[in-house]
Design a protein that fits this description.
Blueprint: H1 2-16, E1 21-36, E2 39-44, E3 47-57, E4 63-73, H2 79-82, E5 90-103, E6 108-121, E7 129-141, E8 144-152, H3 167-171, E9 180-188, E10 195-206, E11 229-242, E12 245-263, E13 271-292, E14 295-304, E15 344-353, E16 366-377, E17 396-410, E18 413-424, E19 450-460
Antiparallel strand pairs: 1-2, 1-3, 1-19, 3-4, 4-5, 5-6, 6-7, 7-8, 8-9, 9-10, 10-11, 11-12, 12-13, 13-14, 14-15, 15-16, 16-17, 17-18, 18-19
């Protein structure tokens, strides 16, 4: 506990000399999840976050905003309790300087910059949804907005990083995470009749040393590591309102290159590692409407292409181009079944209900959210989760039900409870396999109903 107190004191004092506004929040959560058909295990992960912010204006009207936030994980059995709390227990989540000001002489209604460590999510929220070390620029004029981001992902702790694209990332034993250069550019057109159209481009380049990769043109198969993965994405989003209805839709084309173990008659092994081009598609749409101020209903659809020629999800292509959609840092919005978006098609029905709409604080400030999700394989080929056959007559993966209850007990204390249940679509029984019934292998030990219960509380001071 002394180490915890020292960390809190150090971070607080470090910003006390500069900050006008210091905030401390404590987030604690615990989860229980099933591990077998007849048992469960419990994992507890309380965390402590210390945040500090400063904002001021100079005489030229330039607004500077300094912000930083970090977390200290003291979960039982984790790095802190074992004594080796650096670096895994300490995570610098944000450290940035932001500026914003109008530039009327240049015809800009807004010009903003961000420098440092900041959160970034692409317009689909499924390609990259994490943090960057770098810079961001934003311009606005006559309703037109342009945003550009450039950052590096190799300075986050590997144990905490969400960036994982291939075998080299998965097999890495480095302290730091996957080193990739990520850049994006988006153009949002002026709003017209409550409708908005946005175009974006995103690219990432693998910056790992060549020694960490399988050499190009090598002939011996190596499953202990992978090759370089460079990807680009070009997409369009549209969203808006029609009365009580709101909608959104997007389509993204993926390109790039992946090292593949391809057939080569000139090789002694009849195979050779060569680059394959990526040609993939990721698309989705959502529709929401309110029946009354307390009850809302939403529909969501998502589609990601797969690769029928792949032997494994990660760098398993064995023929022609790679058609599997590859994300950079994906964060699933679901509780139990969380596959990467490649070769996944899903449909979601959500219902939100606020029994006591006019009560913002107290036991009556309850908000309920229910999600029913149907998961399917887009086509033949592997998916990112184990236990699913590559080629099956049925593409059904399973059905998930998530229920979340949120309560704001006090102005600075909130509680969230999430219960998730996933029923996989299993292809028959262990003795009579029939893949017309489902895509999960019945002999896989994890092919059974799974649940997850998470209880979290957040206190801000």
């Amino acid at each position: 506990m002394k180490r915890l107190a020292f960390f809190v004191l150090f971070v607080s004092l470090a910003f006390l000399a500069f900050a006008q506004d210091i905030g401390v929040s404590i987030d604690a959560s615990g989860s229980a999840f099933s591990t077998s058909s007849d048992g469960a295990s419990i994992s507890l992960a309380p965390t402590l976050s210390v945040k500090s912010k400063l904002s001021q204006s100079d005489t030229f009207g330039l607004r500077l905003a300094y912000s930083a936030s970090g977390s200290f994980d003291f979960s039982p059995g984790g790095a802190f309790s074992t004594g080796s709390f650096f670096p895994d227990a300490i995570d610098l989540q944000e450290f940035r300087i932001a500026t914003s000001r109008p530039l009327p002489e240049q015809g800009l209604t807004s010009f903003s910059t961000v420098l440092g460590r900041f959160a970034y999510s692409d317009p689909t929220t499924a390609i990259f949804n994490y943090r960057l070390d770098g810079m961001s620029l934003g311009f606005s004029a006559i309703g037109l907005s342009i945003d550009a981001n450039l950052g590096y992902t190799g300075l986050f702790w590997r144990s905490a990083s969400a960036v994982s694209m291939g075998l080299s990332d998965a097999s890495s034993t480095d302290t730091l995470g996957s080193p990739r250069l990520v850049g994006s550019l988006s153009l949002k057109l002026p709003e017209l009749f409550d409708q908005t159209l946005l175009f974006f481009a995103l690219a990432q380049e693998d910056l790992r040393d060549s020694a960490d990769h399988i050499p190009l043109y090598s002939t011996a198969e190596d499953t202990s590591k992978g090759g370089p993965i460079d990807t680009q994405y070009l997409g369009a989003n549209i969203y808006g309102f029609f009365g009580d209805f709101n909608y959104s839709g997007f389509a993204t084309l993926g390109s790039g290159r992946v090292l593949s173990y391809l057939t080569d008659a000139t090789s002694s092994t009849q195979h050779r590692y060569l680059f394959s081009s990526i040609s993939s598609l990721f698309a989705g749409a959502s529709l929401g409407f309110s029946l009354n101020p307390q009850l809302g209903i939403g529909l969501r659809f998502q589609y990601g292409t797969g690769d029928p020629d792949a032997s494994t999800y990660w760098e398993g292509n064995s023929k022609d181009n790679v058609t599997q959609f590859i994300s950079i840092a994906y964060a699933s919005p679901y509780a139990v079944f969380t596959p990467a978006p490649g070769n996944i098609t899903l449909g979601e029905l959500s219902v939100s209900y606020s029994p006591f709409l006019r009560v913002p604080i107290g036991l009556k400030s309850v908000q309920l959210m229910s999600k029913t999700i149907v998961f399917m394989k887009t086509g033949d080929g592997p998916v990112s989760v184990p236990g699913v056959e590559a080629i099956t007559a049925s593409k059904l993966l399973g059905l998930e039900e998530d229920l979340t209850v949120s309560v704001r007990l006090l102005s600075d204390l909130s509680v969230n409870i999430t219960l998730g249940y996933f029923a996989p679509a299993v292809g028959g029984t262990k003795t009579a396999i029939d893949y017309t019934k489902g895509a999960f292998d019945p002999t896989y030990e994890g092919a059974h109903p799974q649940f997850m219960l998470r209880i979290g509380a957040s206190l801000s001071m």
